[in-house]
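Reviewer has doubts. Consider these tokens.
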Amino acid sequence: SRDNIIKFAENVQKYKKIRLFGSAAMSLSFLADGKVDAYTEENIMIWDVAAGIAIVKAAGGNVRFTHGEAKNSLFVSVTNGSLPISK
């Protein structure tokens, strides 16, 4: 939607670099391994991130999530442990 495109453009301006790997599991695995610094997603289904969140937490990363707008969805913010999670 138009709102999603605008939010994406705002994030590009804010973070200066955004990488898309095509899979939450892949993104969170890279984060746990230290290849990327942060991961954020809105309204992602819990089953798409549950295992990746567990891997990141075991690797010492920081995880914050809240309920999303749809049933079983989450707003997720994750960092590799070197960065604080922004509010």
The two ends are 24 Å apart (CA to CA). The first helix runs from residue 2 to 15. The first strand starts at residue 38 and ends at 45.
